[in-house]
Amino acid sequence: MRVFFEGSAYSVGEGESVLETLIRGGANVTFSCRKGTCQSCMLETVRGEPGEGAAKGLRSALVDAGMFLPCCAHPTRDLEVRRPDPAKLFTRLQLAEKEWLSPSVCRLSFEPETNLDWKAGQFVNLRRSDGVVRSYSIASIPEEDYFLTVHVKRIEGGVMSTWLCDELEVGDAIDAQGPIGSCYYDPADSAKNLLLLCTGSGLSPLYGIVRDALRQGHTGEIHLFHASKTADGLYLRDELRALAREHAQLRYTASLTQQADLPEGVVEGRVVARAFERGPDLAGWMVYLCGIPEMVYEGRHQAVLAGAARADIRADPFEYAHPYQPDDSRKLAQIAPDPELWEALERGPGLMRILTSFYDAAFVDPRLAPFFHRVTKQRAIEQQYAFLADLFSGRRAYFGLRPFNAHHWMIISDELFDYREAAMEAVLRAYGLSEPLIRRWAAVHELFRREIVKSSARGMIIAGVEQAMAPPERVVVELPCVCDGCEAEMNVGETARYHAHGGQLFCEACAGVPSRSRPPPSISP
Questions:
Q1: Which DSSP letter does residue 201 get?
Q2: Residue closest to 68 by CA, chosen among 78, 413, 82, 312
Q3: For 303, which of 54, 66, 199, 355 is 20 to 30 Å away at the CA?
Q4: What backbone phi and psi angles, to 5 degrees, belong to 275?
Q5: pLDDT top residue among 525 and 201
Q6: Could you report the per-residue pLDDT of 307-362, keeping only the tens digit for each?
Q7: How far apart are the C-alpha atoms of 348 and 80, rounded to whole Å?
């Protein structure tokens, strides 16, 4: 049985997944968790069937388009696959209305050419004819507004925003992918208090979420904070004030960060500072964060510190076109020692017991274990102990990898990050730590979410420069070792294939590297 991919044929080994077959054969494929969690390895079927369970977790539209996860695929017959065709993931939208809400924010209302089921707060990826793609959050409620509406902040020099605001005309069509995302209102939360923070056009999804909550009879408190550098960015103020007058549970606060003369009813200050200035206890609250990434991640950190459950936080950071540059050093420097927590951990022994308990479970957890490939449990415990003991005690003697470099090749979703943290917090409660101490520990982890969560692998940052991720390369064995595929011994001088992505080394048989003393085995197409 074989897998055909980009002009090559790969023989499937006993019990291997399609991904394992491609990796062993040296195919340059994207992958990370190998267990169907990150979905980064997704491929498209050309011929054959990938097998039962190969599409687990994928949206029905992707399944209908022939997409599958090779890490979960175990075909029973020959299979031909290819990288996904982006065209199959898009539909067409026609611009029906265009209105300027302020000198810098334009409202675009689209009519889908096919039936779309969206919720206010989700986002769509809009694609121009030249392939430029940007994400925009949905402000409209399908049950009331009919059109799919987005708010676009016009950024001078912006490739997409200037085109959408200045050139796209009513009647024109554009490609769209989605809807995507979980940042929307759930009627099951109707009795919970809601805290919503946004900057600039981050109001777009939250405007829809607030209206949707009120439409569905929300009974809990709703606190909406909207901030902008200048008054131009505080659009829809009159509409939101009117909405607050009509609904006693809604409180609306508008603030400016870079304008001295404040309009009536507008306060000064950053949105996170304003929202958390009274030290609210957010246990049981739902938290929504939309806008510039710096605000969103700071808001998440403060929400966790205030007791919000990670499962109750909905975030939509408007990421920049350029990749995020990790900020480990500044973040580490801002963490103050925590003598109370360190004493509760018996100045070390308690921390070791907690980490041992956590990693005992993590190493057999089907979602977490794949990320410890080629790392012993003891090594994982020791590294994490050194890192956390350094922070909690304040001794600052840790010289190991910082969070970004320690996770640079891993593709970890926000959902998986939350899953890992929930498991850790369960161990902390079993140990007997008080809730305030658990919140402070959890907030330390939350501070580095942006360094850890990502949708694609990245190179390590060395001296401020990101190193390129190398494709599989042929190497000569310099020390006796064991193949990571078949576990056969490899001797000095033999050729092998090294995968820098996962730190794996495969022998001639597994990698298909021709031996100097014999021709490679032939694989008929």
A1: G
A2: 82
A3: 355
A4: -70, -30
A5: 201
A6: 999 999 999 898 876 778 898 889 999 999 999 999 999 999 999 999 999 999 99
A7: 54
The amino acid at residue 448 is F
- H or E element at residue 351: helix 349-362
514 pLDDT tier (thresholds 50, 70, 90): very low
pLDDT 10s digits, 392-408: 999 988 878 889 988 88
- Between CA 18 and CA 22 the distance in angstroms is 6
Q: Which long-range contacts (CB under 8 A, 24 or more apart) does 276-285 make?
A: 276/302, 276/306, 279/306, 280/195, 280/306, 281/306, 281/307, 282/195, 282/306, 282/307, 282/308, 283/307, 283/308, 283/309, 284/192, 284/193, 284/312, 285/192, 285/193, 285/194, 285/195, 285/312
Which residues are within 8 A (CB) of 404 and not within 5 positions of it... i.e. 6 or more apart? 326, 328, 448, 451, 452, 461
pLDDT tens, 297-309?
A: 999 999 999 999 9
User: Phi then psi for 176, rounded to 5 degrees?
Assistant: -145, 140
Distances (CA, A) of 301 to 34, 131, 439: 29, 35, 10
Is 91 in contact with 62 (CB distance < 8 Å)? no
Q: Position of tokens 């958390």?
A: 276
- Please state the pTM of the whole predicted model: 0.81
Sorted by where each starts, the structural domains of the chain and their CATH numbers stand as 2-86 (3.10.20.30), 90-322 (3.40.50.80), 337-462 (1.10.490.10), 470-525 (3.30.60)
Residue type, 202: G
Q: Which residues make Cβ contacts (< 8 Å) with residue 24, sequence separation at least 6?
A: 10, 13, 16, 485, 506, 510, 511, 512
Q: What 3-state DSSP class applies to 446?
A: helix
- Side-chain-side CA neighbours of residue 401 (13 Å): 15
Q: Token digits for 375?
A: 């790392």
- Each residue of 40-54: pLDDT tens digit? 788 999 999 999 889
Cis peptide bond prior to 339, omega within 30° of 0? no
Q: Please tell me the predicted confidence (pLDDT) of residue 520.
A: 33
